[in-house]
Each structure stands twice: as structure tokens, then as C-alpha cells.
Amino acid sequence: MLKNLKIIPLANRKDLIPTVTQWYLAAFGRKETTIEQCEEILRSRLNTDRLTCCFLAFIEDEVVGTVSLTANDIPTKPELSPCVTHLFVSEKYRRQNIGQSLVEYAKQKSRKMNFRKAYLYTTNKTIHKWYEKLEWKIIGEGISNGFAIKIMEYEL
Questions:
Q1: What's this model's pTM, rounded to 2 decimal places?
Q2: Domain containing 93 — which CATH number?
Q3: Are 93 and 66 contacting, i.e. CB atoms less than 8 angstroms apart?
Q4: Taking 90 as the threshold, does the pLDDT of residue 3 lie above it?
């Protein structure tokens, strides 16, 4: 993890729900998703040591990224749990290993919750290669909301 990077639960900084909402809508939202719906999703992720939870990355006092852990997130495989979801790093801070640090933090939290594996899916045609470098393995493929997905697993 970066020396000056700090990761905390969203529960500790509820005032940042509007910021994370804007990130989610820009990066992951569908046209029919409203601000209110997105904020409600984030309010459901205010746990700190059990599913479902969301974490924020900070450099100094600036929030720079987020990741969530959910009970299930893979539309075609709802039995796979926990899922690392909504990884986002502010554009200004990309390519500084913040995303990798957030994924590692989510894996550590999953271990502390006594899970043996973690899961995620990607829709981007190349991002799965980044996860493979982090030792995630493709365990399946499917379609979600009209997009081809790769389902990935990490043995904790």
C-alpha cells in the first residue's frame, strides 16, 4: 500500500456519499439509475466488518477512490460471495497502485470475515488482464445487461 494512502469505511465519512454517488453514476450507472437510488445503495453499505460494506481511499484529506464488498453482485451467479465491486479511482490518481491497494484491502476484509474466496466480474474487454496480474482467475463468462462479462475468483 502507498505510504500516504489511508483506507477507511464509508460509514466513517457518510458526508462523502454524494461524492461517491457521482463516481458511481459516471462510471457504473445506467441511464435509468437515479441519484436517490445510488445514494440508497451506498447507505446500505455502511457496515464496517460484515457484508455489505464500502471503503474509501484517501491521500492526505482528499478522497481518491472506493471499493465495495457485497454478498453477491454477479447476475448469473448469485451464489458467489463475497464480491469485490465498484472499484473506482479518481482520474487524477490513476496509475499509482491505488486500485490495487483497494482490491487488496477488500481481500483482507474478506479474509477477516472468514471467506475462503472472493469474486468479481468485469465488463471491460481488457480490465480482466489487470486482475489476472493480481492473481485473480477467470472461472466463467456470461452476459449482464447486454454486456459480455468475465467472472473471476481469488483464493484467499
A1: 0.95
A2: 3.40.630.30
A3: no
A4: no
